[in-house]
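User: I'm preparing a small set of examples for a lab meeting where we compare how different chains pack in three dimensions. I only have the primary sequence for this one, and I'd like the structure in token form so I can line it up with the others. Please keep the answer compact; I'll paste it straight into my notes.
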Amino acid sequence: MEAVKRIKTVRLRTFFLQYLLFLSTGTIMLLVVLLGLFTLAFASNTILPANYAEKEIAVFKERLASSESVSPDAVPEMLDYTVFSSQGELLAGNLNRSEAADAWEISQRGDHQDSHFYTTARRGQEIWIFRYSLTPQYASPSLRSYLPNPQLLGILLFIFGVLLQAALLAALFGRRLSEKMAGLQEATENIQRENLEFTVKPSGIREIDDVLASLDRMKEALHTSLKQQWELERSRREQISALAHDIKTPLTVIRGNAELLKETTQNESQQEYNGYILRSAGDIEAFVQEVIDLSSLQASTAPQQSLVSTAEFIEELELQMKALSSGKNLHPSVLKESVPEFLFIHKELFQRAIANVLSNAAEHTPQQGSITLQVRGDDDAVHFTVTDTGSGFSPADLKEAANQFYRGDQSRSSGKHHGMGLYIAKSAAQLHGGSLTLDNVSPSGGGKVTISISVPKGQLL
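Assistant: Understood. Below is the structure token output for the 461-residue chain.
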């Protein structure tokens, strides 16, 4: 974490104050721009001042007083007016009847209504009533028709501009903050994956770098602890594997001598006892082989894989199926569908995994039953599915059968297995980037085990 300490850092509050400073500066600049635009609009008479109508009315009143006759065409365009007789009869004007009636009543009372102001002028028997408001207006009639008044438009533009720059600055600073947090996210993801061979990247923000420093110290402590654990685990596996191999030698001697005794003349009791020895030796050999396979799997975090002919691999599996089926007169069958020409696998390891599944299926299939191996290619994966006509998996088996040392219930357990066959198969599938799933065949109810592994795209036929 020396790099974190040497780099120039700022506090998180300073980072957010920068955002507020940019927002405040942008708001002031927006206000200045809007004021400048409105000043130019007033200077060019695009927008008329708030008292423009009031001045026009004053000029027109003088004209009324000095002229003998005034036609409606002579009234300035922007003036709202109505003309009544002295008896209150509507004579002319550009206000509708309702507005004109309101104007007459208000002028009689001498007050104004809402944002409008009223003023009157008498010319002979005519009473002219003018209505106006003290707000800026557009000089163009089209702008007055389609846009809100300049005062409201300025407020709306200011609000929209503030919201827009706030959104843009939030996106910009959000991206910057995400970049600052990237090192923290990367460190936590590496620790989660148990990858402790990484270097912590400083963010430049003091609070985040303090967390990164703590993560770096935790990483070093985890690395030391896990290294000791891995060493103990490796030593344990080696000891178990060595012990299993050592057991094979005296076990081979026991089996050999028992087979020699079988060839000698024995009475009925001796034959029975000799049979016990041979069967027990076979059970121990199977268990020792499972222990060796399990130790090999646990040690092979990255198995040495190579291209293997799929056809030859399936043929070898078919021979194993026939050997497993012969003792119980089972009917084995192999189905193939869209399989690739080659598989990129650790042949011995993967073959042992499928052999465990086939052996499990043969063990739990009754006499004259059948077991089927289906090999099917699907998109970028190959599925090896083994089905049987046995009693199938119980609900507990479906959840636990692939776990280490799970023996199952009596409905699908002969007592001869040690709860490692499907676990070894699952471990081998995972080492090949695949998975193992358990199911029951419908409607027969037999067991169904599928091992799926991925293959490079373009290899499927």
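A couple of notes for your slides: The chain has twelve helices and 13 strands. The two ends are 53 Å apart (CA to CA).

User: Perfect, thanks.
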